[in-house]
Structures are given as C-alpha cells and as structure tokens.
Amino acid sequence: MIHEILPHRFNNQFIIATDIAEDDYILHYRENSLLLKTAGDGFEIPRKKDVSAIVNTKAGTFLFSLDEVRCFLIWEDPGTIDDRFAYTEMSFFRRLQPQEIAWVGIVGYQLRNWYLKNRFCGKCGSKTIAKQDERAIICPSCNSIVFPVIPPAIIVAIRSNDKILMAHNSNFKENWYSLVAGYVEIGESLEETVKREVKEEVGLDVKNIRYYKSQPWPFSGSMMIGFVAEADDTQPVCPDNIEITDANWFSRGNLPNHPINDSLGGEMIDLFEKGEL
Ligand SMILES: [Zn+2]
User: Fold this and answer.
1) Which end of the chain has fewer CB within 10 Å, C or N?
2) 33 C-alpha vs ligand 1 centroid, how far in Å?
3) Rounded to an integer, what distance in angstroms lies between the CA atom of residue 178 and that of residue 183?
4) Distance 58 CA to ligand 1 centre (A)
C-alpha cells in the first residue's frame, strides 16, 4: 500500500524546529499541487538549498521527517518558477515514484489543508497561531486548541462462498468497481458502520464482520479501516442509486476494473483474487 515505504521511515514525531537546514525538504503547495524538483525523468522534493533563491525559507512550519531529513511547509508562493521545478497535481501522486516521496507529498498536503482550514478559531473567530511545542493550533484570544482531526471510514470486502461484492460508485469512471465504504457516523461502533453502510448502499445484511487492516488516506484526510464480512447471496442486491449505481457478485478470474493495491480496498480485492481472503 502507498504508506508502506520501508526501508524508508516516515517519522511524524513533532519537534520544536524553527531553523531550516540546507538539506531539509521544502514543501510548497499551490491549490492541489506540490512544488517538485525535476530530476531526469523523475521528481524530487526540493531541499532548502534548491529553492532558497526563489522563495523565503526563513519562515516554515515543521511537518515531520523522512528518514533523518526534516520536512517544512513553506507558505510564501515563489511566483514564477523555471524548468528545474514543476507543480505536480496530487492525483498524480498515487503512481509517483519513488514512493516515499509520494507519501511525504500527500501527508504534507493533508497537514497543509488542516492548517489552512483552521486559520480562524471555530469558537470565537479570532486569528489562530501554530502552537510551538506540539502539532496543534491555538487561539490566542480564548485558548482553544485544535489538533488534527482524522475522520474514520470503513471499507468492507463482502464475501459469499467464492464471490465478492463489488460496487460502482457514481463518482467512479465507467466500468470501475470497488468495495463498499463509508464514513463512521456519530454514536456508532465500527461494526455498526459496516452494517449500516452495506445496508444503505447495496441493501444487504452482513454477518461475521472481522477486522482486516487499516490505512491512513491523506487524499481525503481520513483513516480507512478494513473489514471482511459475509452475506447470503440469495438476498437481492439493491444499489441505493444515489452513491452506488450498480453492485454485483463477482467470481475470481472475472473481476471488473478495480483500484490497484496502493489502497486498502485494492489490496483486499487482490487478496481475494489470489484466494487469500
Ligand atoms: Zn478563540
């Protein structure tokens, strides 16, 4: 999966850091794109020494580290850039290599969006500031502290005998199918979310719900929590025709187009195909 970057190590421990070193990574986002340094046919995340001529690197927000290299978010836009650099869309990052660079780019994107959305206090409306000693934002007027919020969402591989249920979401491209997924609502357990989402989206009752694995998904800022469940395939499959426009049982060797195994859903579908789920 996309977050599995061994032997590289993503370290999200917060450190109190204000001085950016010459070799530290610089992350600057413009809308949904990240400033990258071109390197032959590929890309690198620029280091301070690469960009200090085009942007003010004195003021940065510490994000996390990749291996031993610290990563800083820079807010000032460099304006015009030359062909040593390129802004690359987040949608491209699922297949961007090397994978550890892609991972840093999308986790940084999640944190940058969180900082952006919390520039003003949700309680009193005052301008907020970054807390210096931990990854948090504080309101100097009412002292409210905001930590990053990570909404949990379930994704479930529904099985019946040798078949798996796959669904076409109205947002997907044509002939594209994946597993049933949805956000956890207030007041419910993860297992209750699985039952509710499956019932709402495809009309099935599921049983024997088992936890599989989780995956942080910075594109939406959520935490995907994977489950396997069973359903009786004599029940009618009834797509809700709002979020899900088609759903059906599929056999091994006969699966429709589906996500690659950079995602939790893709990995579960892959395992099913190999007879390991
Ligand atoms: Zn406030």
Assistant:
1) C
2) 31
3) 16
4) 27
Q: Which amino acid is at 223?
A: M
Q: What is the mean pLDDT of residues 61-85?
A: 93
Indicate whether 270 pLDDT > 90: yes
Q: Give the model confidence (pLDDT) of 45-55 as tens digits.
A: 999 999 988 88
46 vs 18, which has greater pLDDT? 46
Q: Given this model, what pLDDT does residue 55 score?
A: 86
Residue 120 CA to ligand 1 center (angstroms) comes to: 8
CA of 128 from ligand 1 middle (Å) equals: 7
What pLDDT is recorded for position 79? 85
**Rg of the chain over all Cα atoms, to the nearest angstrom:** 22
Tokens of 199: 């019932």
Domains and CATH numbers, the chain: 10-117 (3.90.79), 152-273 (3.90.79.10)
Distance in angstroms (rounded) separating the CA atoms of residues 37 and 35: 7
Output the furthest CA–CA distance in the chain (Å, rounded): 66
Query: What is the distance in A from the centroid of ligand 1 to the CA of 229?
Result: 44
210: Cβ–Cβ under 8 A, 6 or more apart, which residues? 227, 228, 229
What distance in Å separates the CA atoms of residue 274 and residue 250, rounded to the nearest whole number?
Answer: 14
Backbone angles phi, psi at 168, to 5 degrees: -100, 115
Q: Answer yes or no: is pLDDT of 81 > 90.
A: no
- Sequence-separated (6 or more) residues with CB below 8 Å from residue 81: 35, 54, 87
For tokens 């969402």, the residue is: 153
